[in-house]
Amino acid sequence: MAAAQQAQAGGRGSRHLIGRCLRNHWCLMAFPVTRLRRLRRTDQLRNLVRETRLTPDAFVYPMFVCAGEGVRKEVRSMPGVFNLSVDEAVKEAREVHSLGVPSVILFGLPDKKDEVASGAWADDGIVQQAARALKREVPDLIVMGDVCLCEYMSHGHCGIVKASPQSLGAAARDAMNTVRVVAVRSSEEKAKAIEAATSPLVAHASQTNYEIDNDASLELLARTSVSLARAGIDIIAPSDMMDGRVAAIRRALDEASFTNTPILSYAAKFASGFYGPFREAADSAPQFGDRRSYQMDGANLREAMREIELDIEEGADMIMVKPAMPYLDVIAAARDRFDLPLAAYQVSGEYAMIEAAARNGWIERDRVMMESLLSIRRAGASIILTYHAKDAARLLA
Ligand code: PBG
Fold it and tell me: To the nearest whole percent, how much of the chain has pLDDT over 90?
């Protein structure tokens, strides 16, 4: 049996191999001449040869802004993360900045939601108010604005929802099949009877057979981006996953003379269970269906490269992969292939898992926190959006 095969077989074979290895010259090039442990002996040596370093200036801290004053409401599934009124957000932003974290990204909880996401693009929208206050009070902090409609839509989807025409047809056919005879005495009663017979059907159809209208949503996303830029947002970060949105946003920003406002595109955003706690924090869970018809399928690496490529062609200045830890291979492939600044989002579920396990005493929180951030950096992300930004920055100080 050849030595290599014996080694594979293990047991007696591998002991035999080591014996031969020590006598044979080919092996002298490796063990014991090469001892990788030499450079692991002390803290100083390990530090000297460290390949990847974490620094607070890679971090972006996400914040959830809500109406009111003095509001600081902890998110149940994200201990340490709060819904903040604008005044509290300013305090938080000062702290973030003083810890050496250069940037925050804002999400809004509007007072009212509707079918056209008015709260996203209103000039007195909650994020617009917060942006003005933050840029006034902490001018050196880079303020990013997440551009999406889900937090502002009554149905919680990231775009305009329309019933698909085919399904309304199907609904009508169903209606014909269940015709009931109703006696009416006046045209008013007739109208009421028709309404009573059809409205549950239409509601049912629009909830089970609906579509997110891509092109109609672009107009609202572009409008939102211009409104945010006007309020002082430094970087526009679209997270909606509509096709063509980077081009639409770039065009609208340029037309409104915001030619210098960069776009950080959530280019490869996967439909993920790891967003669960965020949907509580931002009150943005879809009321029906899920986001799989617009966010990416977690199985697809090559498609992620196409998403990124398209966003770059459309004018993205920076690209993002999200979530981070379950998609480190996507981060690494993107780093390999594209030369734009690359961000990764360590999302709410990643944060919540670490916090929950630590609270149970099952893991060492700080250690796992730093290890997970380091892994994201090592995979190739130069910018990390993370709810751990403040605590990690404190440890790095
Ligand atoms: C908005 C948006 C989401 C996140 C960022 N922007 C939620 C979603 O797509 O459902 C998730 C962030 C997180 O989980 O921390 N579309």
Answer: 79
- 115-149 pLDDT tens trace: 999 999 999 999 999 999 999 999 999 999 999 99
Q: Which of 73, 112, 113, 322 is catalytic?
A: 322
Asked if 162 is an active-site residue, the reply is no
The HSE-up count of residue 84 (CA atoms within 13 Å, CB side) is 20
Element holding 198 (H helix, E strand) = helix 187-208
Checking if the pLDDT of 179 tops 70, the result is no
| From-to residues of CATH 3.20.20.70 in the chain | 58-161+212-396
Question: If 0-12 CB within 10 Å is exposed, 13-18 middle and 19+ buried, where does residue 367 land?
Answer: exposed
The CATH number for 58-161+212-396, chosen from 3.40.50.300, 3.30.240.20, 3.20.20.70, 3.30.70.990, is: 3.20.20.70
Single out the catalytic residue among 73, 112, 192, 269. 269
Give yes or no for residue 96 CB within 6 A of ligand 1.
Answer: no
Distances (CA, A) of 123 to 32, 157, 230, 232, 347: 69, 22, 8, 11, 28
CB 270 within 8 A of CB 298: yes
Burial of 139 (0-12, 13-18, 19+ CB in 10 A): exposed
Give the pLDDT confidence of 347-395 residue by residue, as tens digits: 999 999 999 999 999 999 999 999 999 999 999 999 999 999 999 999 9
Asked if 322 is an active-site residue, the reply is yes
Residue of 191, 190, 185, 113 whose CA lies nearest to 156: 113
